[in-house]
Amino acid sequence: MILVNVDSLSVSELRSIAGQEGIDGADALSREDIISLLEEKYGEDDGDSDQKDPNLRYMSGLTDYRDISKYVEDLPGVEELPQSYPDTEIHLIKKNGTWLYAFWSISPNDSDSLQDAGSSLLLAVTIENNGKREEYDIPVSFTDSEWNVGIPYGDGFCRVSLVAVDKDGKRTVLSVSKSEDLTDSYWLTHTDEMKYSESLYRLYLSLITNKEGELVDTPVVREIVQLFRKEDSRDE
Fold first, then answer.
1. How far is 125 from 157, CA to CA, in rounded Å?
2. pTM of the predicted model as reported, rounded to 2 decimal places
3. How far is CA 168 from CA 92, 96, 117, in A?
4. Of 25, 119, 169, 192, which sits most exposed with the smallest number of CB within 10 A?
5. Are 135 and 126 in contact, with CB atoms under 8 Å apart?
6. Sequence-ordered strand ranges (E) for 74-176
């Protein structure tokens, strides 16, 4: 389901929504007045509810809370997403410095022919990092359509291919994603600057500390700690 944000709606669309919400005279109101009345109405609905839904907030999304079949199907600018797509393709989105989100679709024709032939699927991951190349496979099924791919910190890229493998082991590349750059951590190669500068040290740690004051356990934190320990052992 595509969720509509209030900032993207025209006055006519807002008036249509107001009419569905039972607000009289919306056709003669301005955009700002309609938004104000809708916010007021949703606030009243929130207050009357025994179970307050934190997602019931007009400014963050108009269709994220109610009975979709009743309230959403006639909203302007909202349409149902298809169950499948006609093209075979794969895409990557960076979640953070250590994870990529891969998602793909296989056309019905490709899926039927591959399964009839007894082929299997896999994701072929290529990581180029600081001049070194790593390649490995992730087996997936025909019912899968998404996967999280772990990546290292560094200077390079990651690319994922959707590959079919037939009974004889022959590989056919169905689609290749665009490359996503790796995240280069400056401090992994400049630990001395952080270690001997209290202000830099505190600044960096504040970015990886949770509200309880504990360090967030991430690969880059573990590597920095290991580098510090190596330096300390050499100093001794």
1. 11
2. 0.52
3. 29, 38, 11
4. 169
5. yes
6. 89-96, 99-105, 120-129, 132-140, 146-150, 156-165, 171-176
